[in-house]
Amino acid sequence: MSIDKTLFDRLGGLRTFEVVHKIFYDKAYAHPWLSLYFTDKPQEVLESQQTDFMVQLMGGAKRYAGKTPKSAHQHMMISEELFDLRSEMLSDSIREAGISDDLREEWLAADGALKKSLVKTSVEECSQSYPNQPILNF
């Protein structure tokens, strides 16, 4: 009898997600454009939140207790170009972590399913989560 493993299991569990997100956020915080979106957030916090979210999304433990992607990013003008840049960096990070191309593609497909709730066509689609929160548009 075969056991159908979740994508979380096939990727190797929690440690894989931690490694990929460390590589990814090292790149994001060093990038001249993407880094502008993270100036008020400690890298370790974002790594942890992203790991918890993606672990849960891909069939692992329900560890994420934060906002939905749409509400967490409502104050950010995320264009198609910015989303694609982020996706390329994530793809490179997954590859650098030694994950096979087929599993990398599955990860990117799961991640890409969130695109619709993140990408905006104009800054007018952005809104504040709390008073005086800046709209991030770089």
User: What's the total count of β strands?
Assistant: 0
- State Rg: 15 Å
Relative helix content: 40-55%
What letter string, H or E per element, gives the SSE order? HHHHHHH
Average pLDDT value?
A: 95
Structural class category: mainly alpha
**Could you give the distance between the termini?**
53 Å
- How big a fraction of the residues is strand? under 5%
Number of helices: 7
Biggest β-sheet strands, sense, barrel: none
Shape: globular
Which segments are poorly predicted (pLDDT under 50) over 5 or more consecutive residues? none
Briefly summarize what is shown.
The chain is mostly helical and 138 residues long. Helices cover 54% and strands 0% of the residues.
Explain how this protein is built.
There is one protein chain. The protein is an all-alpha fold and 138 residues long. It has 7 helices and no strands. Helix 2 crosses helix 3 and helix 2 packs across helix 5. The N and C termini lie far apart (53 Å). The model has no long low-confidence stretch (mean pLDDT 95).
